[in-house]
Amino acid sequence: MSNFIYFSDVVTGSVVSQPDQVIISRLGETVTVKCMTLKDKDRYLLWYQQRLGQMLRCMCMARKSRHPSYVGEFKDSHISCQRTEGGFDLKIRNSNRSDEASYYCAGRNRYEHLDFGNGTFVRVEGKFQIEIILLVIFRIK
């Protein structure tokens, strides 16, 4: 599987849906990002992460009857993907600041077209944000 996306092959919204636009999590919590599919027969389902200012990165993928496979840094991480009846959920355990990003579920059909969900932004709130604000205030003075 290639990590490149050819935009002429991308279709959004109709086959894959993500019910939550934004999820707010506390630092260290477990977050579940849901993805629902209308047509998952023999389809690959994939999860992508996009941190602010960065490229879209494929995290994991799975066929209907197989366990998910993970890409790069997402192998053996605190993030897991799981096929569910009618969907493909992403679970972030012990959320941390690097998990704050937009997550996109996609389905790939036999013609190699990708159907993307609208995305879910995961915001992670916690002590680290206060430390950043204090650092900025002291630098300004």
Characteristics:
eight-stranded mixed sheet, 141 residues, three-stranded antiparallel sheet, mainly beta, disordered N terminus, globular
Would you mind describing this structure in some detail?
10% of the residues lie in helices and 42% in strands. It has 141 residues and is mainly β. Strands 1, 3, 6, 7, 8, 11, 12 and 13 form an eight-stranded mixed beta sheet that branches. Strands 4-10-9 form a three-stranded antiparallel beta sheet, with no helix packed on it. A hairpin with a 5-residue loop joins strand 11 (101-108) and strand 12. Mean pLDDT is 82; it is low at 1-13.
Approximately how much beta-strand content do the residues carry? 35-45%
Average of pLDDT: 82
Strand segment count: 13
Q: Helical element count?
A: 1
Biggest sheet character: 8 strands, mixed
Q: Write down the overall geometry.
A: globular
Radius of gyration: 16 Å
The topology string of helices and strands comes to: EEEEEEEEEEEEEH
Structural class: mainly beta
User: Which regions are unreliable across 5 or more consecutive residues at pLDDT < 50?
Assistant: 1-13
Helix amount? under 10%
Distance from N terminus to C terminus (CA atoms, Å) equals 51 Å
Secondary-structure blueprint:
Blueprint: E1 10-12, E2 16-17, E3 22-26, E4 31-33, E5 36-37, E6 44-50, E7 57-62, E8 69-70, E9 79-84, E10 87-92, E11 101-108, E12 114-116, E13 120-125, H1 127-140
Parallel strand pairs: 1-12, 3-13
Antiparallel strand pairs: 2-5, 4-10, 6-7, 6-11, 7-8, 9-10, 11-12, 11-13
Quick overview:
The protein is mainly beta and about 140 residues long. It has one helix spanning about 125-140, and strands at about 10, 15, 20-25, 30-35, 35, 45-50, 55-60, 70, 80-85, 85-90, 100-110, 115, 120-125. Strands 1, 3, 6, 7, 8, 11, 12 and 13 form an 8-stranded mixed β-sheet that branches. A 3-stranded antiparallel β-sheet has the order 4-10-9, with no helix packed on it. Strands 2-5 form a two-stranded antiparallel ribbon.
